[in-house]
Amino acid sequence: MLVFNATMGAFYFGYVYSIINTSADKLAAHFQWKGDEKDKIISIITSLTPTAALFGALIAAPIAKIGRRKAMIIADIIGIIGLLVCLYSIYIKSLYTLYIGRVICGLIVGCNSALTPLYIKEISPVTMSGITGTYN
């Protein structure tokens, strides 16, 4: 159960990456983006997350020194805040707030992608480490 719970970080990874692609048309209609402007803004929003994830993976090592479990809990709380910032940006129709929310989510995706495998390796018994490692 601990491994399954830890792999929710990978679920968050997929969710954050895919949510913009599935809702791009609704976002464009809500913000009233047209033509080339729509494509440019959706591209920026989509690319912010993996770019921030790169830096999130780099800052995960210093954060992991407080403990893998604590670091994952802190990262998940910040990730929820990032998702709420994204939702709030849609409510107030602020593109820059949406950018900030996507960067926060990207940082947490990077942290989760670095912390989750470490945590799984630490909590798994030696006889099951290969099997549990594939869950992520």
Show the helix and strand layout.
Layout: H1 2-6, H2 8-31, H3 35-64, H4 68-92, H5 95-123, H6 129-133
Helix pairs in contact: 2-3, 2-5, 3-5, 4-5
Structure report:
This protein has 136 residues and is mostly helical. It has a single domain (2-133), classed as Up-down Bundle (Growth Hormone, Chain: A). It is 87% helix and 0% strand. The chain has six helices and no strands. It has helices spanning 2-6, 8-31, 35-64, 68-92, 95-123, 129-133. Helix 2 runs antiparallel to helix 3 (35-64) and helix 4 packs antiparallel against helix 5. The model has no long low-confidence stretch (mean pLDDT 88).
Task: Give a concise summary.
The protein is mostly helical and 136 residues long. Helix content is 87%, strand content 0%. The chain has helices at 2-6, 8-31, 35-64, 68-92, 95-123, 129-133.
The geometry reads as elongated
- Tell me how many strands there are: 0
Instruction: Tell me which CATH architecture applies here.
Output: Up-down Bundle
Helix and strand sequence: HHHHHH
Largest sheet: none
Radius of gyration: 17 Å
Sequence stretches where pLDDT stays below 50 over 5 or more residues: none
What would the CATH topology be? Growth Hormone, Chain: A
CATH top level? Mainly Alpha
CATH superfamily: MFS general substrate transporter like domains
Structural class assignment: mainly alpha
Please tally the helical runs, counting DSSP H or I stretches of 4 or more residues.
Answer: 6
Instruction: Please state the average pLDDT score.
Output: 88
Strand content: under 5%
Can you give the helix content as a percent range? over 70%
Counting structural domains, the number is 1
Oligomeric state of this protein:
single chain
End-to-end CA span? 13 Å
